[in-house]
Amino acid sequence: MGNKLQIQAQAQIAVVREIFYLFFSSIFLNPPQDNLIKQLQEPGLLEELSQYFDPSVLAILEEFSQGYNGDLDKLQQEYYDLFHVPLGKYVTPYESVYCDTWEIAGKKKKGLLLGPSAQAVRKIYRRAGTELDEHCTELPDHAGIELAFMHYLCQREREAWQQGKEEEAVQWQKLEAEFVINHLTPWLPELCKQICQKTQSDFYRGIAQLINEFILFEEKTLTHLPG
What we know:
By secondary structure, this protein is mainly alpha-helical.
């Protein structure tokens, strides 16, 4: 059993991870708004992030921040081009497309929606006591939904630590590890790579590299949890 300071430290780590997952989820689910850009331009924010991320990645966001001319419409169009409009820039933000193989007319084919991965993550959502909102228009294996689920798990872990429920907090950690290792690292880095290749915006290029770095660090950390 951990002492009080160790429990507080674990709760604080969960808070930080909770914040990152919520932010990364919003990147895939919503076009950027003025308040997000203003936060990115706040003095000291990128310096604060340097304790978590490689300076070369943050330099891309610094370049965006300094060169941003207020053209929010252009940035929002980049969001739709990347994640919604199936044309030249489009990157498919669904796990099934990257991880699942279908057999059609005796031939194996990848790149289709609603494969076994979508069903698998839905089952994990239910195991964790949550469901997709009835108003949600995205599939269960959408990048934004999966990252939002990790935000939910970190939130539950943090609440358990704060309530002194150590065994419960550890169980949430184990579920986080299972989800990151089985449902994020097998495909999210490739999605981030695709974004970097296709986007014309330093905003999305920088954020994609942040997500990639964060997920790989999460995999490394959660893999070494006891049990």
